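agent> Task received from the user: take the single chain below, predict its 3D structure, and emit structure tokens. No templates, no multimer pairing.
agent> Plan: (1) validate residues, (2) run structure prediction, (3) serialize to tokens, (4) report one or two observations.
agent> Step 1 OK, no nonstandard residues flagged.
tool_call: predict_structure(input=
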Amino acid sequence: MGEVLDALELARRLVRLDTRGGGERAAADLVAGVLDDAGFDVVLREPVPGRANVTARTGPALPRVPVTFTGHLDTVPADPSGWSFDPLGGEVRDGRLLGRGSSDMKAGVACQVEAAVRASRDGGCPVQLVFTFGEETGCEGAARLGADATAPADLLVVAEPTGNRTVLGHKGALWLRATAHGVSAHGSRPELGRNALAALAAAATRVHGHPDWPVSPTHGPVTVNVGTFHAGVQPNLVPDHAEMGIDVRTVPEFGSGDAVAAIAGLCGAEIAVERLVDLPGIATDPAAPGVADVMEILEPESSAHRPRYATYFTDASVLAAKLGDPAVVVFGPGDPDQAHVTDETCSVAGIASAAEAFYALLRRLAAA
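)
tool_result: status=success, residues=368
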């Protein structure tokens, strides 16, 4: 075995690989190579050309592993023309790692890899790692994992950006397409047509302006965003088709079925509403066996505070069921406020702290 690859250096290498909305195979090859060199049993599968998942295990073969680490290898797009530095540069400046994916979430992946490799050499507990493609567009890679790809786990640790704070779950994500159909006519005779754009725009205004979405005592408010709108061909045609995309973040008390019914009611009977992505939320019980201990290892004194839940979704929405419904803890070095922003960065000190926390978790679980 070679020298353990430092989490910061691995994160820099990952940031330099262009996985903006695809091309994750290069990042999968990188992490798979590091884990293979460290003696892990590694499987890399490429169900879509250029897009791959990596699973790896170390320790004795067990029907159920104590812990699974997971993260995604893709990032959202980044247009270099709007950045003050190269989004694929992986530069370190003023104590920050610069680049797309530095916070969300290549640094988190790197920390999990470093910790797992170190712990495997130093007597840590058996660990399973799952690194996916396509999380940003609805957990596509996690959904493509076959039944034979993973073993059930007692604990799932997701290295999404939390600023190294323990988070016990997140809202669900529901992406909808609302469609209006009309009748085309010449732009000079609009009375002969039926304007789908106008009908859908009115519906979009009602959805956007609705003030009474429920608020969960644990996960916070349901949020609804009208994110896309497409209609029309040219100004002198009455548009006969219009579509909009809607992002709803659901909570335990207001699930996807409730949300679809509410959105359909606001849109009106003439607007068709269909589900594109429907990901359940995650809510780990802080009183569940072992959860407080895990929280204390990762973030000392965190179990004494009110549990936190994230607004974003993670691969846990898909992986939890595949892994036999383990407890889920989200913890990573990235800054949540840096996710998806222009000039994304991540704290170098936070990366070192997260890698050490993951390592400590594996060592403590081995001793339990």
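agent> Step 4: summary for the user.
The CA atoms of residues 296 and 302 lie 6 Å apart.
agent> Done.
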